[in-house]
Write a structure and sequence with these properties.
Blueprint lengths: L1 E3 L5 E4 L7 E6 L2 E6 L3 E3 L6 E3 L1 E4 L16 H16 L4 E3 L15 H15 L6 E6 L7 H16 L4 E6 L7 H13 L3 E7 L3 H12 L5 E7 L6 H4 L2 H8 L2 E5 L21 H4 L2 H30 L2
Parallel strand pairs: 7-8, 8-9, 9-10, 10-11, 11-12, 12-13
Antiparallel strand pairs: 1-4, 2-7, 2-13, 3-4, 5-6
Pfam families: Aldo_ket_red
InterPro entries: AKR, Aldo-Keto_reductase, Aldo/ket_reductase_CS, NAD(P)_OxRdtase_dom_sf, NADP_OxRdtase_dom
Protein name: NADP-dependent oxidoreductase domain-containing protein
């Protein structure tokens, strides 16, 4: 699958198993193959592709896109959407804050995703698109009704009557018990098929799991930052808790915002805010790992070719 790699990627891990995923970057795009079809999210009935496309950068002008959004970038996002579907990747993750004016964006990511889905369905009515979005636990939001109200606003922007996965984007300063209640209400009202959280610590994860369990609703997932160069979920108990409780860990930024693709070098670091994180020195230190990834990819290609051709 060819798709833009500027953060637009996430992976789904079920228990201790990791899907056989290969990605090789080329001029800002990646060729991705998934060896397996779908995975069930936690104890829910929802099944999604093991590789998904994150829409954080779509419409954003505060972190991505060099602080500007234009027609060329719109077409690139649309191309990523269509090419993903063409290659069997149907899981798209967005959030109400992505690209929103509240986050100094140009156009809401949910609005763009909804537009892309509508246009695709006009020429391919049977196309399958699995949508995940997120609730922002903003300080002025309180109680379960704020979750339902925000969800309905998201559905309006998406142009959908329901979404497959609704997540709490982060833990709030207060009101988290009510937010969990809101997730349960959303399931019971048929507005979502499954619910999850994002950026939740082990303690908060367990609390959310137990609270939903009392209503007979599984906590399907916890979406966290997880990659070859960011392994905190293995160290802070989050991944172990997910494995123990049967909660699917969804890894966002598995290619470290493009740093693990080989697209960027010490001579060509990313622009904008990412350039302050992935500096020339950082990328120089990362080079041995990138060389190893490239070597493994080449070996995988040879093995796959031999297996398919008999040579």
């Amino acid at each position: 699958m060819a798709m833009h790699v500027s953060g637009a990627c996430f992976s789904v891990f079920s228990g201790s198993r990791v899907g056989n995923i290969r990605a090789v970057a080329s001029e800002g795009f990646a060729t991705v193959k998934t060896a397996e079809d779908k995975v069930k999210l936690g104890g829910s009935d929802l099944k999604v592709t093991k590789l998904g496309v994150g829409a954080w950068s779509w419409g954003d002008t505060s972190y991505w896109n060099n602080f500007q959004w234009d027609d060329r970038k719109m077409k690139a996002a649309k191309a990523a959407f269509d090419t993903s579907l063409d290659n069997g990747i149907t899981f798209f993750d967005t959030a109400e804050v992505y690209g929103s004016r509240a986050s100094f964006g140009a156009i809401n990511s949910e609005t763009l995703l909804g537009r892309f889905i509508k246009e695709r369905k006009q020429r391919d009515p049977e196309v399958e698109v699995t949508v995940a979005t997120k609730f922002a636990a903003l300080p002025w939001r309180l109680g379960r009704q704020s979750v339902l109200a925000a969800l309905k606003d998201s559905l309006f922007r998406l142009g959908l009557s329901s979404v497959e996965l609704y997540q709490l984007h982060w833990a709030g300063i207060w009101g988290n018990e009510g937010f969990i209640d809101g997730l349960g209400d959303a399931v019971e009202q048929g507005l979502v098929k499954a619910v999850g959280v994002s950026n939740y610590s082990e303690k908060r994860l367990r609390n959310a799991y137990e609270k939903l369990k009392k209503r007979g609703i599984p906590l399907a997932s916890n979406q966290v930052n997880y990659s070859l160069i960011y392994r905190k979920p293995e160290e802070n108990g989050v991944k172990a808790a997910c494995d123990e409780l049967g909660i699917t860990l969804i890894a966002y930024c598995p290619i470290a915002q493009g740093a693990l693709t080989g697209k960027y070098t010490p001579q060509n670091p990313p622009t904008g805010p990412r350039g302050r994180i992935y500096t020339a020195e950082y990328l120089r230190n990362l080079q041995p790992l990138l060389n190893r990834i490239k070597e493994l990819g080449e070996n995988y290609s040879k093995t796959s070719t031999q297996a398919s051709t008999g040579y």
